[in-house]
From TrEMBL:
Keyword field contains DNA repair: no
Pfam families: HATPase_c_2
Chain coiled-coil ranges: none
Protein name, per record: Histidine kinase/HSP90-like ATPase domain-containing protein
The UniProt record lists the keyword Acetylation: no
Domain of life of the native organism: Bacteria
Naturally occurring in which organism (per UniProt): Streptomyces bangladeshensis
Keywords, sorted A to Z: Kinase, Serine/threonine-protein kinase, Transferase
Domain Histidine kinase/HSP90-like ATPase residues, every copy: 29-115
InterPro entries found in the cross-reference section: Anti-sigma-factor_SerPK, HATPase_C_sf, HATPase_dom
Length: 120
């Protein structure tokens, strides 16, 4: 059985803990990756950007949980950085990369979806 949770929200600092609360039934890695992808929208597109967060759970056909964050800017693509110990930012996507089995971006003419999959 495949379960999907979907949330339409504005990317704000308050949205991150709210999202973690809504995902409390999921493990730490799912909550962390979802909030890191949400935080990327805040950092790179700005506070108040409308987003859709989807968590397609537990029984995906490959035994993975998929997290998708869709925003309205197809041009602002995420970049995996190598943050140093003194950098104040740049670790979010590195965390997703370390925890996820795979991740990527799907672009449309008026949106993009950044996604990751974590093994159950």
């Amino acid at each position: 059985m495949r379960t999907t949770l979907e949330f339409e929200l504005l990317a704000t600092p308050k949205a991150a803990p709210d999202l973690r609360h809504h995902l409390r039934e999921h493990g730490f890695d799912v909550r962390l990756c979802a909030t890191e992808l949400l935080t990327n929208v805040i950092d790179h597109l700005g506070e108040g950007t409308p987003v859709t967060v989807r968590v397609i759970g537990a029984a995906t056909r490959h035994g993975r949980t998929r997290i998708e964050v869709t925003d309205p800017d197809p041009r602002a693509l995420p970049v995996l950085l190598s943050a140093t110990a003194t950098d104040e930012s740049g670790r979010g996507l590195a965390l997703v990369n370390a925890l996820a089995e795979r991740w990527g971006v799907e672009q449309g003419p008026d949106r993009k979806t950044v996604w990751c999959e974590l093994r159950n």
